[in-house]
Amino acid sequence: MVSFGDANCDSVLNNFDINAFVAAALDAEEEEAPHDYCVAAGLSESGSPSPCQACWDARETWGDPQRRRRVQQFRS
After folding, report:
1. 25 — alpha (psi -120 to 50), left (phi > 0) or beta?
2. What is the CA radius of gyration of the chain?
3. pLDDT digit of tens for each residue in the chain (76 aa)?
4. Backbone conformation region of residue 46, classed left if phi is above 0, alpha if psi is from -120 to 50, else beta
5. Cα(52)–Cα(37) distance, rounded to whole angstroms?
6. Which of 58, 65, 72, 66 is nearest to 22 (CA)?
7. What is the pLDDT of residue 70?
8. Is 31 exposed, middle or buried (0-12, 13-18, 19+ CB in 10 A)?
9. From CA 48, how far away is CA 22, in angstroms rounded?
10. What is the dihedral of CA 7, 11, 14, 15, to 10 degrees?
11. What is the 3 state secondary structure string of the chain?
């Protein structure tokens, strides 16, 4: 299960989520997973849906717990 802050969807909240979270914050409005996010998260872009797209689609869970339609850096 993906939790808040787990931006690479590996079920572990650690330093490997930082680059993916930053990449997501820069392109949060995109429907398709941005290439920079996939690279930062270390996720494959192949398959249907790709692991990268599946994690990107879950960004409301790991990056937007208040459902404000944006990836946010702080809980409030």
Report:
1. alpha
2. 11
3. 788 889 999 999 999 999 999 999 888 889 999 999 999 999 999 999 899 999 999 988 888 766 666 676 655 5
4. beta
5. 8
6. 72
7. 66
8. exposed
9. 25
10. -40
11. CCCCCCCCCCCCCCHHHHHHHHHHHHCCCCCCCCHHHHHHHCCCCCCCCCHHHHHHHCHHHHHCCCCCCCCCCCCC
Of 44, 59, 70, nearest to 3 by C-alpha is 59
- What lies within 8 Å, CB to CB, of 59 at 6+ separation is 7, 24, 28, 71
Tell if the pTM clears 0.90, that is, is over it: no
The answer to whether residues 55 and 9 touch, using CB atoms and an 8 Å cutoff, is yes
The domain limits of the chain are 1-76
Identify the CA nearest to 28 among candidates 61, 63, 53.
63
Q: Which two tokens stand for residue 51?
A: 């692991």
